[in-house]
Design a protein that fits this description.
single chain, 2 strands, binds zinc ion, about 10% helix, little secondary structure, rod-shaped
Length: about 55
């Protein structure tokens, strides 16, 4: 007897939820100078330390 075992190997799509490092959107400097900058950190509020001191 020929036992035909047909195993359908469904392609298991493993959607890996790898949290992509979201590029922080550029924001305006909080000191009010009107400069727009790309913050290195998410909590960065000023263009640099000078602006932080100014603000
Ligand atoms: Zn500023």
């Amino acid at each position: 007897m020929e036992a035909e075992s047909e195993q359908k190997q469904g392609i298991i799509e493993l959607v890996e939820k790898t949290p992509l490092p979201r590029p922080v959107s550029p924001r305006d400097c909080e000191c009010g100078c009107g400069n727009r900058f790309q913050p290195n950190r998410r909590d960065q509020m000023y263009l640099n330390k000078q602006h932080a001191d100014y603000g």
